[in-house]
């Protein structure tokens, strides 16, 4: 069976378990078994059916992500239809709640009418909500939606279309610029270690490494943000959602001057609630560590990144990467350890008599984050690039503007379809 069908079954299972069962229902842990079985069936089939690594990674990644999402909303946070809120106490409302006028009506009180349709919509909303936008439980550091009072919908549709087109063009260009000869020389697995090879590392290798890390970051931004904007364009165009429901996928790069702000503010927060729930449950309910201590805080960071490492390790396997070659666990645990070390250094700096202008602090911070990522990202990215490094077609975009005329026609057709969606949406807005 096609792996996408297993993913669809996962979504349907999550919708009905969330909407039609009580928080203490025995069906909820049984549903976790069902969702896990879907992942087990889906992951090995991804490369066979999806052919290219980025496409396999998307299907496999969303499958394991929804397994984590099920674990969070159904078993850990334990969202309840009757309360229209999580009832486990693991998730708390925003510490800075919106004013009463700003809080959506459905979040001011428990759910009213108990009907099949109401429960179905509740399940659909929760299944599709990773950042819980517009609720009292919205993920912290979710960017604010761009709101324009006049022509808001039309402006949103065209801005979203422009973002999709730019993302497509960047992904196409990154794929075309791949040079298998350079890749085989500098982007192999034996080039991942850096500190122990400093005596043999050339300036050219450092430059290629830095450019590869930058291109990987832009590529991930374009893939994840681009796909997010495709759904945003469709949702707003057919009037099933509003522009305010689609805040930017990423934060501002201006905030990425520490590892903590890079991961907690700039990077997308789609998985933040899942990892937070797992880490809080592990540290405070399994290990019974008190809140408010440095040990508990640092352990939560490590557990969160360990959870992320497991998620991406499974995603790597879906992409055809053997567990032994995957750098997911190494990379994400390194980020967690880096954040802990960074926090200790910042605390020491603030307690010392050393003072620097804010601009200098941020400049040092940007340099630190850049060097840390150039050092650490290849552990995760180089194994993923195995097909592209062999010269195989592993582009994320299905059709290229830089290939044959037939390919260009197909690429322009894809963009014209997006323009048609935007036009229809603006005409009926």
From TrEMBL:
<comment type="similarity">
    <text>Belongs to the wax synthase family.</text>
</comment>
<dbReference type="GO" id="GO:0006629">
    <property type="term" value="P:lipid metabolic process"/>
</dbReference>
<feature type="transmembrane region" description="Helical">
    <location>
        <begin position="366"/>
        <end position="388"/>
    </location>
</feature>
<keyword id="KW-0808">Transferase</keyword>
<feature type="signal peptide">
    <location>
        <begin position="1"/>
        <end position="19"/>
    </location>
</feature>
<feature type="transmembrane region" description="Helical">
    <location>
        <begin position="408"/>
        <end position="428"/>
    </location>
</feature>
<dbReference type="Pfam" id="PF13813">
    <property type="entry name" value="MBOAT_2"/>
</dbReference>
<protein>
    <recommendedName>
        <fullName>Wax synthase domain-containing protein</fullName>
    </recommendedName>
</protein>
<keyword id="KW-0472">Membrane</keyword>
<dbReference type="GO" id="GO:0008374">
    <property type="term" value="F:O-acyltransferase activity"/>
</dbReference>
<keyword id="KW-1133">Transmembrane helix</keyword>
<feature type="domain" description="Wax synthase">
    <location>
        <begin position="246"/>
        <end position="333"/>
    </location>
</feature>
<dbReference type="InterPro" id="IPR044851">
    <property type="entry name" value="Wax_synthase"/>
</dbReference>
<feature type="transmembrane region" description="Helical">
    <location>
        <begin position="157"/>
        <end position="177"/>
    </location>
</feature>
<keyword id="KW-0732">Signal</keyword>
<keyword id="KW-0812">Transmembrane</keyword>
<feature type="transmembrane region" description="Helical">
    <location>
        <begin position="29"/>
        <end position="51"/>
    </location>
</feature>
<dbReference type="InterPro" id="IPR032805">
    <property type="entry name" value="Wax_synthase_dom"/>
</dbReference>
<feature type="transmembrane region" description="Helical">
    <location>
        <begin position="116"/>
        <end position="137"/>
    </location>
</feature>
<comment type="pathway">
    <text>Secondary metabolite biosynthesis.</text>
</comment>
<dbReference type="GO" id="GO:0016020">
    <property type="term" value="C:membrane"/>
</dbReference>
């Amino acid at each position: 069976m096609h792996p996408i069908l297993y993913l669809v079954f996962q979504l349907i299972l999550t919708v009905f378990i969330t909407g039609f069962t009580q928080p203490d229902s025995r069906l909820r842990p049984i549903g976790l078994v069902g969702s896990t079985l879907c992942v087990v069936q889906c992951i090995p089939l991804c490369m066979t059916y999806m052919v290219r690594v980025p496409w396999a990674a998307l299907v496999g990644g969303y499958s394991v992500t929804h397994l984590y999402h099920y674990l969070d909303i159904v078993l850990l946070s334990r969202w309840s239809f009757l309360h229209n809120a999580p009832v486990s106490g693991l998730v708390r409302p925003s510490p800075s709640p919106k004013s009463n006028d700003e809080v959506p009506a459905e979040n001011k009180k428990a759910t009213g009418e108990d009907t099949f349709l109401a429960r179905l919509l509740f399940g659909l909303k929760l299944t599709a909500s990773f950042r819980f936008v517009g609720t009292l439980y919205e993920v912290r550091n979710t960017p604010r939606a761009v709101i324009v009072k006049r022509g808001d919908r039309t402006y949103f549709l065209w801005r979203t279309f422009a973002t999709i087109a730019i993302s497509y063009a960047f992904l196409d260009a990154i794929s075309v610029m791949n040079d298998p000869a350079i890749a085989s020389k500098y982007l192999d697995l034996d080039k991942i270690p850096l500190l122990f090879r400093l005596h043999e590392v050339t300036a050219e290798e450092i430059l290629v490494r830095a450019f590869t890390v930058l291109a990987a970051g832009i590529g991930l931004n374009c893939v994840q943000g681009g796909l997010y904007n495709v759904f945003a364009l469709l949702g707003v165009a057919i009037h099933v959602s509003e522009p305010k429901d689609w805040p930017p996928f990423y934060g501002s790069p201006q905030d990425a001057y520490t590892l903590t702000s890079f991961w907690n503010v700039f990077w997308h927060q789609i998985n933040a609630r899942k990892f937070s729930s797992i880490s809080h449950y592990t540290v405070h309910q399994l290990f019974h560590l008190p809140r408010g201590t440095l040990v508990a805080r640092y352990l939560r960071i490590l557990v969160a990144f360990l959870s992320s490492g497991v998620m991406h390790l499974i995603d790597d396997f879906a992409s055809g990467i053997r567990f032994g070659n995957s750098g997911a666990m190494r990379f994400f645990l390194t980020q967690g350890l880096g954040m802990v070390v960074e926090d200790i250094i910042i605390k020491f700096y603030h307690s010392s008599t050393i003072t620097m202008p804010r601009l200098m602090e941020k400049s040092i911070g940007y340099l630190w984050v850049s060097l840390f990522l150039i050092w650490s990202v290849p552990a995760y990215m180089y194994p993923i690039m195995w097909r592209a490094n062999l010269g195989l077609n592993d582009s994320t975009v299905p059709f290229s503007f830089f290939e044959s005329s037939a390919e260009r026609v197909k690429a322009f057709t894809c963009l014209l379809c997006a323009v048609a969606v935007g036009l229809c949406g603006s005409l009926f807005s």
